[in-house]
Amino acid sequence: MRFYALFLFILFSVCSFADEIELGFDDISKYVTSQNYDYKGSLFERDSQERLTGYLGRSFIPNLKLEMGTANTARKLNQNTQNYNYLATDLDMNIFKGGRDMLEENARQSSLRISDIKSEQIKYEVLSNARKLYWELVYQKEVIKILDLAISTIKENQKSAQKRISGGIATSTDKIDFEQSELQYQLDYQKAKILYQNLQRDLVAHLVFPPGTTLNTQEYIPNNHDHAKSEFAENTFSPEMHRDFQLYDQRTQLFTFQKTKLSRWWTPHLDLYAGYTKRTEDIGQENAYTIVQENGLIGGIRMTLEFDGFDNQSMSTSEHYQAMANDNYKMQKRIELDTEYINATKLFNLNHDLVHASEENIKKSEHYLKNTREEYLRGIKNSPDVLQASQRLITAQIRYAEVKKDYQLAKVAILGLLGK
User: Fold this and answer.
1) Closest to 258 measured CA to CA, from 184, 321, 175, 336
2) Among the listed residues 173, 196, 149, the one whose alpha carbon sits nearest the alpha carbon of residue 384
3) Span 143-179, pLDDT tens digits
4) Which of 16, 108, 323, 380 could lock 255 by a disulfide, CB 3.0 to 4.6 Å apart?
């Protein structure tokens, strides 16, 4: 019985903590690459394309064809019967296809690289979304802590107001002011908690944890912005290395290979071939049978020239226009990526400066609230003054958390552009 109770205790303990996961910002990439189904599906597509490569080598492997059979016939006039068995083998091996086999291999290699790039696109799209959700989640956690402290402070102010009312220094409206303020903070607090829970579910879905999993993130958004700024200053952005640019570049190459292959429809095929045929006939007439055998061996080089009414030439022209289209898309993407990086770095630097400004604003708001409370206790200031000073500090604290979040989101954008 004691062992059974111990087993239930251990099982309950495991179940209680199995749905909680410690998640740091640097852990997100690991979970995306190991658990996200979109990314894992893209890897299967990539593997599918890889199996198609190696065509050039396989095109020189001989093709073997084997046929065998038996038949029985009879003639009605003289009642003769005829039985025969046959065996035929053919062997064909490619010698020359006008370079179309090499171009087909190049096209398949381009398709493989396109699959690699698409997989990277999915990876960084999911990773960027998950990183943004992470900082939004930590931000809401900070807001909840700020509002929880604000509610506690308001309750302390209510006690001070009650003492002032009892001492005849203040009226009952002082307490009502604080009660109304507490109600508003309670509403904001509940809203922040709902947003926090929604963000938890969204991030759990992106990282493919079991539904209901609780992600324990860091408590506050870090403000080590000076280090990050110097780190990014050493990076140089090249649009040609970005996955979106490379996708159009590889598509241009793919359509170019296909165009060239189709344009060579007029070149002959040269094949080395060999064949062997064996036929055995049993001819029966009046209880007598005659066995006849025929054997044949042939071989040589076969040249095949196909004419398709210029359909391949038309398809070649179509592929040429597709290549030109993607080449234009590539040039436009280069301009957009350059602009996007410049905008991201400008926003990054702006938020860096705003973090410093917000830190100074909090210090001033704390000092202002401290002086206002002291004057309130001495009867110089009233409850609206205390509420205004408290609101100023809470607004500064929330704004500080928001600026840190915006700074981290700008950093996420730059990481995505740099492929980190």
Assistant:
1) 321
2) 173
3) 999 999 888 887 877 776 666 666 666 566 767 777 7
4) 323
Q: Report the CATH fold assignment for 17-59+97-269+315-418.
A: Outer membrane efflux proteins (OEP) (1.20.1600)
Reported as half-sphere exposure (CB side, CA atoms, 13 A), residue 293 has a value of 3
Place of tokens 């303020």: 181
Question: Which of these, 157, 192, 193, lies nearest to 177 by C-alpha position?
Answer: 157
Q: What pTM was estimated for this model as a whole? A: 0.80
229 burial level (CB within 10 Å; 0-12, 13-18, 19+)? middle
The answer to whether 17-59+97-269+315-418 and 62-96+270-303 have equal CATH topology is no
Domain covering 62-96+270-303, topology:
Outer membrane efflux proteins (OEP) (2.20.200)
Q: What is the pLDDT of residues 25-62, one digit of tens each?
A: 999 999 999 999 999 999 999 999 999 999 888 888 88
Helix (H) / strand (E) containing 281: strand 269-285
Query: Which of 364, 417, 371 lies closest to 393, judged by CA?
Result: 364
How many residues does the structure list for the chain? 420
- Distance in angstroms (rounded) separating the CA atoms of residues 278 and 110: 46
Cα gap 200→195, rounded to integer Å: 9
The domain limits of the chain are 17-59+97-269+315-418, 62-96+270-303
- Interstrand relation of 214-216 and 20-22 (parallel, antiparallel or unpaired): parallel
C-alpha 261/C-alpha 318 separation (Å) is 12
